[in-house]
């Protein structure tokens, strides 16, 4: 009986070792067959050297920050030297503790996996996982196919170990991992989950990312359902680091008590900073790649080829610009909502019901919902009906998106209530665009009010009229002219009837006496602008404006003197920058250079310049524009005392030289402010989506109320950041002595003495 039991036991032992040895022989056979290419071709040396992967095109600001990416996979690879030591230690301790000892395959781990029939884990090394990421992509659900895939991964892993250093393998592995939420690779994961570069990760942050490697969905720290799992898995990483000796037991205990903390900063096309700029840049690059092919003739793919686009935007100034727009417009919006409660045709003025219906119908047909249903062949009658059915949706508010139940038709009218704004800031001497805010929210409002939006510019066009007169006739800001009504007769300049513009307000003194050019521009006196354009002719003004950067066609009539022309904010800032650059126009620049993924420079920008005004004339115009902020419609920039009930940001208290001009169009539909300091030209536009959407009265509807505050808030933030070096100095005088008289104190004194017995012109009587 004992002999029989012993024989049976030996039989089981033989079977056990037979299975084990057979398993290893099978593994060895699979490895040999795979290395011979029996299970399909293996990657070539060239493919190993240049593994195919989708590399995001990265947009890099002038101060070295990543503004965003264009990507199918949001992947921007980095080198091992840019990885923090704690991240590497956490990875090795958790995913492959014998990483520095094996040559691609961990045979101890493999033995454990085989002996436990694949249920013990530990078989895949970091190098094998890299091989899978690079050349297998999706693991097969078919057991036999997966085994063959695994064999190929073993072979590729050994090849990778022969070709790359351990450090390069770690970097490649982390660069190819996915972390959800468009985070492909460790760099985008670090930015998206913690808002920082990998080298700045704390140990507890590195542990969270390593924890996600096992399964980025199950252990995701941003998903409410998986936060507890993420926390527990992070603590496993700490335990592994302690086991490996990277941290002490005491450190492990302290780290495990820390709460799970992230700084989630998503990087979709509608998230982050400079969203409108990035969208414009994307369209530019799509055109650029067609004209600039690769050396082999192929077209660069901005979503896969890992280009680096170095742009002129300064991330700090961009942040301040977006904050300024949000801060002022959200406050201004409250006033507008309050006013509209009394408006029976809200948010429109001066329109009949039929006209309003036409606007809303046009908006409906331009919506994504309409276009999508139209593409899918839905009859128009059904599409219209769908706009009247309530549906769950997320709508915009300045305090955050709101989940609500609303008909799409009502949501269209709701969105019409919002005021919009654009801001563009440029360095006049280089043409470098430093901040670009195209609207109040790119996710909900795609229209770009910097480059797309053409609106009437109002009085902000008057400086070009004055500049033409000064440049051609050598007029002085101190020269005085009557402010009486001025008529340009029918037929002159091709106008069909006589043109006699009026000054704003009802005060009888608005046409009495004389005024210096400086005071007239400061107060936007229309009759003086009419006189000036008749002195030089509309065509000469147009030529100067176009040389300064205006691209859109300007109608050749005298009414352009009052700003009837429709231009973009981009054109206006470009043109105003010329005044600060001594009459030399530098074409706006948004890209400094483009590199491929290897750092080869594909494009280097050079500034394009054109002389528009003499240095003296440009300086004189700046002197005129300074008068706007010291004694005209921009005077509130200088005020230091509080003004109850004002919209926002008051007082401003600037005491440095500022050349500026407000602009307000008919029915106060558009409010502008153009402000220039020696090394920065910034323009702001504010208004409704449609021209019938505006404030009822000019108090809050003028440029000084709608746009000047945004400019002031932005500049205050810039001045509070000394690293930006925004100038507070006076504008630089021409090298040659200025022959045109600029000191107007004596002239103004004489005029004041002459007018002192006459009724005072009150604020509001002049068109701002």
> Approximately how much beta-strand content do the residues carry?
5-15%
The major β-sheet equals: 5 strands, mixed
Unreliable segments of 5+ consecutive residues: 25-39, 117-122, 756-768
Distance between the termini: 115 Å
Keywords:
single chain; about 775 residues; alpha+beta; 5-stranded mixed beta sheet; 5-stranded antiparallel beta sheet; about 45% helix; about 10% strand
Structural write-up:
This protein starts with a helix and ends in a 13-residue tail after the last helix. The chain is 43% helix and 11% strand. The C terminus is likely disordered. It has 768 residues and is of the alpha+beta class. The protein is built from 27 helices and 18 strands.
Could you outline the blueprint of secondary structure elements for this entry?
Elements: H1 2-35, H2 45-49, E1 57-60, E2 66-70, H3 85-95, H4 107-115, H5 126-136, H6 143-163, H7 166-176, H8 186-194, H9 203-212, H10 227-244, H11 249-256, H12 275-291, E3 308-311, H13 315-340, H14 353-365, H15 368-375, H16 380-386, E4 391-395, E5 402-406, H17 408-416, E6 419-426, E7 433-437, E8 455-456, H18 462-473, E9 480-482, E10 514-516, H19 517-522, H20 526-536, H21 538-548, E11 566-567, H22 569-580, E12 584-586, E13 591-595, E14 601-604, E15 609-611, H23 615-631, E16 659-664, E17 670-677, E18 680-688, H24 698-701, H25 703-706, H26 708-719, H27 745-755
Parallel strand pairs: 1-3
Antiparallel strand pairs: 1-2, 3-13, 4-5, 6-7, 6-18, 8-11, 9-10, 12-15, 13-14, 16-17, 17-18
């Amino acid at each position: 009986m004992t002999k029989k039991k012993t024989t049976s036991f030996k039989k089981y032992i033989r079977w056990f070792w037979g299975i084990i040895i057979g398993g290893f022989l099978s593994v060895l056979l699979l490895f040999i067959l795979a290395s011979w290419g029996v299970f399909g071709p293996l990657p070539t040396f060239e493919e190993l050297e240049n593994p195919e992967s989708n590399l995001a095109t990265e947009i890099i600001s002038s101060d070295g920050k990543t503004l965003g990416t264009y990507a199918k996979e949001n992947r921007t690879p980095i080198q091992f030297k840019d990885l923090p030591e704690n991240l590497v230690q956490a990875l090795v301790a958790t995913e492959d503790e014998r990483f520095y000892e094996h040559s691609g395959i961990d045979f101890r781990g493999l033995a454990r996996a085989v002996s436990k029939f694949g249920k013990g884990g530990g078989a895949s090394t970091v190098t094998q996982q890299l091989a899978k990421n690079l050349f297998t992509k999706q693991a097969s659900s078919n057991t036999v196919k997966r085994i063959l895939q695994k064999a190929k991964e073993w072979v590729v892993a050994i090849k990778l170990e022969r070709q790359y250093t351990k450090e390069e393998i770690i970097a490649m592995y982390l660069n190819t991992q996915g972390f959800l939420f468009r985070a492909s690779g460790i760099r985008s994961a670090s930015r998206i989950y913690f808002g920082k570069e990998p080298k700045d990760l704390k140990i507890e942050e590195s542990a969270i990312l390593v924890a996600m490697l096992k399964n980025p969905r199950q252990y995701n720290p941003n998903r409410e359902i998986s936060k507890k799992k993420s926390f527990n898995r992070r603590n496993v990483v700490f335990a592994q680091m302690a086991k490996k000796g990277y941290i002490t037991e005491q450190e492990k205990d302290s780290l495990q008590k820390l709460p799970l903390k992230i700084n989630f900063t998503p990087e979709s096309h509608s998230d982050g900073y400079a969203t409108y700029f990035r969208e414009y840049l994307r369209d530019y690059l799509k055109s650029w790649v067609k004209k600039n092919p690769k050396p082999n003739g192929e077209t660069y793919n901005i979503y896969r080829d890992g280009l680096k686009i170095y742009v002129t935007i300064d991330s700090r100034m961009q942040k301040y610009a977006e904050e300024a727009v949000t801060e002022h417009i959200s406050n201004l919006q409250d006033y507008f909502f309050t006013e509209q409660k009394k408006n029976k045709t809200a948010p429109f003025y001066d329109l009949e019901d039929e006209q309003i219906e036409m606007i809303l119908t046009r908006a409906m047909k331009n919506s994504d919902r309409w276009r999508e249903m139209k593409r899918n062949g839905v009859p128009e009658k059904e599409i219209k009906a769908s706009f009247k059915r309530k549906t769950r949706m997320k709508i915009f508010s300045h305090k955050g998106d709101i989940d609500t139940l609303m008909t799409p038709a009502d949501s269209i009218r709701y969105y019409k209530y919002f005021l919009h704004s654009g801001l563009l800031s440029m360095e006049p001497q280089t043409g470098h665009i430093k901040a670009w805010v195209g609207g109040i929210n790119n996710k909900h409002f795609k229209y770009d009010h910097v480059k797309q939006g053409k609106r009437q510019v109002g009085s902000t066009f008057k400086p070009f009229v004055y500049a033409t007169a000064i440049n051609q006739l050598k007029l002085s800001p101190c020269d005085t002219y009557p402010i009486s009504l001025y008529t340009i007769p029918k037929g002159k300049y091709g106008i069909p009837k006589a043109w006699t513009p009026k000054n704003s307000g009802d005060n009888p003194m608005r046409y009495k006496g004389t005024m210096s050019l400086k005071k007239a521009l400061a107060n936007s006196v229309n009759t003086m602008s009419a006189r000036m354009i008749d002195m030089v002719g509309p065509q000469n003004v147009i030529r100067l404006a176009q040389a300064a950067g205006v691209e859109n066609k300007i109608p050749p009539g005298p009414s352009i003197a009052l700003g009837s022309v429709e231009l973009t904010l981009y054109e206006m800032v470009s043109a105003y920058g010329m005044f600060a650059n001594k009459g030399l126009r530098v074409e706006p620049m948004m890209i400094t250079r483009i590199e491929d993924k290897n750092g080869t420079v594909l494009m280097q920008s050079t500034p394009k310049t054109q002389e528009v005004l003499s240095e003296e004339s440009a300086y004189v115009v700046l002197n005129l524009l300074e008068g706007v902020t010291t004694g005209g419609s921009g005077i509130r920039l200088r005020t230091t005392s509080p003004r109850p009930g004002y919209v926002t940001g008051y007082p401003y208290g600037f005491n440095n030289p500022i050349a500026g001009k407000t602009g307000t169009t008919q029915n106060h539909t558009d409010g502008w402010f153009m402000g220039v300091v020696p090394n920065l030209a910034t323009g702001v536009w504010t208004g409704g989506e449609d021209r019938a959407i505006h404030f009822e009265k000019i108090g809050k509807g003028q440029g000084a109320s709608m746009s000047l505050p945004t400019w002031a808030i932005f500049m205050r933030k810039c001045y509070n950041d000394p690293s930006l070096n925004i100038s507070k100095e006076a504008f630089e005088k021409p090298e040659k002595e200025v022959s045109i008289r600029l000191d107007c104190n004596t002239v103004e004194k004489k005029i004041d003495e002459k007018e002192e017995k006459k009724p005072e012109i009150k604020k509001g009587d002049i068109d701002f």
